Amino acid sequence: MIAALICVISIAAFLQFFVSYCRSVISASRGVELSERVREITGIAGGIIPADDFERLLQLVRLCPERSDDGTKIRAVDAYHNLLRAVNFAARAVMPGVVAWVERELQGCSYFAAVALDRRISSSRDLFSQQAADRF
Amino acid sequence: MLGPFDYFLWITSFTLEAFVVVSSLLRRDFTRYIFLNLYMFFVAFNTVGLYICYYKFGLASLQYFYYYYYSDSLQYILMYFVIIQFYQQVFIEMKVSRYIRGGAALLLGLTALFSFLVVHQNRDHLTTRFVVELEQNLNFIGVVLTYLLWGAIVKLREARARLVQLVLALGVYYSATAGSYALRNLFRSPGLEAHVLHWLPPLFGTWLPFAWAYTFTKVPEGARLATARLAVRVGVR
Fold first, then answer.
1. CB atoms < 10 A from the CB of B81, how many?
2. Distance of residue A119 Cα from the nearest chain B Cα, in angstroms
3. 3-state secondary structure string, B136-159?
4. Would the ipTM clear 0.90, i.e. be above it?
5. Out of A3, A21, A27, closest to residue B229 by CB
6. Which of B218, B230, B234 is facing A20, going by the closest CB pair?
7. Residue B129: per-residue pLDDT
8. What integer pLDDT is reported at residue B15 of this predicted model?
9. Dihedral-angle region of residue B95 (phi above 0 means left; psi in -120 to 50 means alpha; beta otherwise)
10. What DSSP designation does A45 have?
11. Is residue B232 left, alpha or beta, with left meaning phi > 0 and alpha meaning psi from -120 to 50?
12. Does position B237 have pLDDT exceeding 60, yes or no?
């Protein structure tokens, strides 16, 4: 009985800690303004990026040369995104409140991917400019 | 007999634990999180000790069994000090360190007394099942303490990103470990134990130094975040 109680409470606490941890990782990107260049490339118009754009943005991120410091973050957010999609699938029919919350979280993931893309493009351009300057 | 994945986890966790300690020494930041660093140092030292024990006496030996669980108990005591230091950092502006220290000493004393009484009563049959139950209870105290700390962080709108991530990583570790021990207690099938549950504690044991190493490397001490946004409030905008 006690083991079952501890098990249920621990799983509930684990989910809450894990979600908060992932949100703390992606929260740093929320305050970052996207550049005009990345908006033009991706076709993003407003401040909110649709949740469905995450996969497309991640594919674009993977096309860019990898930065040394963002690989782990991107993988963690990708895992969080998959977890949210699973929750969305399970809760769609029974809990509309959860679905709305998941939708906002997925939009946050998409924004994170757009910021990561922006940083990788800037980094690639800097590298290219540096190489061009070295050549001359 | 240990497989390649066991060795992989062993080496990875030792490397990450050593990395946390060495990097904080290099950053001259050892004393700011002194108990965390002492804990990581002890765990790294313990990982080596465990390997020596395994190498000399074998996985099924009584020596390995006692070394594993006794050193784990010492780890829990050190971890309580880590949590207490986090509490002190969160409540630093309220100048209640004296009360936190008092409360922590009382809690530690009570936990030690409770554990002593339970072990004393069961000394004739100190079986794996009993030890798993004790570990489950000690981890669960950790879950409760970390959850209360997380509640205080949200309530006080603590904005230090590094501290928040360290506490959340600890919360993930404690809740996952307590849950896995509770599952081991609930389902005593040897097949499930050998193929699934046996892997969980070492996996979560690797998670903690990984998350802490990541936080110390990537999150600067001065970084701030909006904590209110991190708390999960489903259905509230």
1. 16
2. 16
3. HHHHHHHHHHHHHHHHHHHHCCCC
4. no
5. A27
6. B230
7. 65
8. 92
9. left
10. -
11. beta
12. no
Please report which confidence band the pLDDT of residue A127 belongs to, taking 50, 70 and 90 as the band edges: confident
Cα–Cα distance measured from residue B4 to residue B7, given in angstroms and rounded to the nearest whole number: 5
Interface of chain A toward chain B, CB-CB under 8 angstroms: 3-4, 6-7, 9-11, 13-14, 16-21, 23-25, 27-28, 30, 69, 72-73, 97-98, 100-101, 104
Residue of A20, A30, A104 lying closest to B168 (CB–CB):
A20
CA distance B67 to B49: 9
Nearest residue to A99 (alpha-carbon basis) of A107, A26, A9: A107
Identify which of B50, B54, B44, B48 has the alpha carbon closest to the alpha carbon of residue B70.
Answer: B50
Please give the structure tokens belonging to residue B202: 């070492």
* Per-residue pLDDT tens digits for A50-109: 888 888 988 888 888 776 667 777 887 888 888 888 888 887 777 777 888 888 888 888
B200 near B176, Cβ under 8 Å? Answer: yes
Q: Do B140 and A6 touch (CB under 8 A)?
A: yes
Residue B52 one-letter amino acid: I
pTM above 0.80, yes or no: no
pLDDT tens track for B155-200 = 888 778 888 989 999 999 989 988 888 888 788 777 777 677 777 8
Tokens read off for B231: 């708390």
Cα of B192 vs its chain's centroid, Å:
24
Give the angle subtended at the CA of B145 by the CAs of B198 and B50, to the nearest 5°. Answer: 35
Backbone angles phi, psi at B224, to 5 degrees: -125, 150
3-state SS track over chain B: CCCHHHHHHHHHHHHHHHHHHHHHHHCCCCCCCHHHHHHHHHHHHHHHHHHHHHHHHCCCCHHHHHHHHHHHHHHHHHHHHHHHHHHHHHCHHHCCHHHHHHHHHHHHHHHHHHHHHHHHHCHHHCCHHHHHHHHHHHHHHHHHHHHHHHHHHHHCCCCEHHHHHHHHHHHHHHHHHHHHHHHHHHCCCHHHHHHCHHHHHHHHHHHHHHHHHHHHHHCCCCCECCHHHCCCCCCCC
State the Rg of chain A over Cα.
Answer: 18
Phi, psi of B234 (to 5 degrees): -70, 130
Q: What are phi and psi of B13, to 5 degrees?
A: -65, -40
CB neighbours (10 Å) of residue B50? 17
